[in-house]
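Appendix B, example 12.
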Amino acid sequence: MSFQDKTLTCRDCGQEFIWTAGEQEFFQSRGLMNPPSRCPADRAARRAGGGGGGGGGGGYSSGPREMFTATCSNCGREARVPFQPRGDKPVYCSDCFEKQRSSRSRY
């Protein structure tokens, strides 16, 4: 497959940048299907600032975590949890969750 340089626009700064044929070949060799959405300078700044994606936090915070209300499967009290309960797994209040966790760690 023959690659040709392409002009792309950075989604962060709006500047145009060249995605070289060599870079395209590198992307293909790594199985990457999508072209870069940021210019090289913004990609480097993002890496240096710890704002990379992929989860795990990495020093990046999008603000306060959304909390959901559920009923504790153990004691019946209100539980505030950082995920949307689906109903197919038990949900515990913080006290019951700690009891569950400490009882599992003994085995």
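The mean pLDDT is 84. The chain has two domains: 6-48, 68-105.
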